[in-house]
Amino acid sequence: xxxxxxxxxxxxxxxxxxxxxxxxxxxxxxxxxxxxxxxxxxxxxxxxxxxxxxxxxxxxxxxxxxxxxxxxxxxxxxxxxxxxxxxxxxxxxxxxxxxxxxxxxxxxxxxxxxxxxxxxxxxxxxxxxxxxxxxxxxxxxxxxxxxxxxxxxxxxxxxxxxxxxxxxxxxxxxxxxxxxxxx
Length: 183
Fold this sequence. Notes:
The chain is mainly α. It has helices at residues 2-30, 36-53, 56-72, 76-96, 100-117, 121-138, 145-161, 165-182. The longest helix is centred in the first third of the chain and has 29 residues, at 2-30.
């Protein structure tokens, strides 16, 4: 019975590694626009493995990568679809483990940006503020720089659009601070 348990454990870890590899490849291809097919191919593989393993964190991460890609290519409907899936899973993670806070901040930033692009400004403002408040309240440092930057950038755009230049400038400077750390 013990050898069977060891075999299953090894198989499980191999699947986790393979899922992670597919996520990394999909994310890398997402940085190059002409490779959208490869991005979708690798992330669909990662999603299939995540579902097979019941890996909530892995699925949330894969959906976030897709949402990020669709956000960066100005496809708010697709971004919104994947960001909603990621956010739902991250809420579950947030309720079960403290590390879920940084991920929740990121999915809220993606949702806020998608709603801003779709013209739902009140909801974009609410979600983007929630994203930044999670970071401030919990001093989350593990969030992806892109996702933190995106919340501040969306807030900057919102306040610029409403004529609140001081607030727009404040959030623009905060977004710039984050992008400076990324380089």
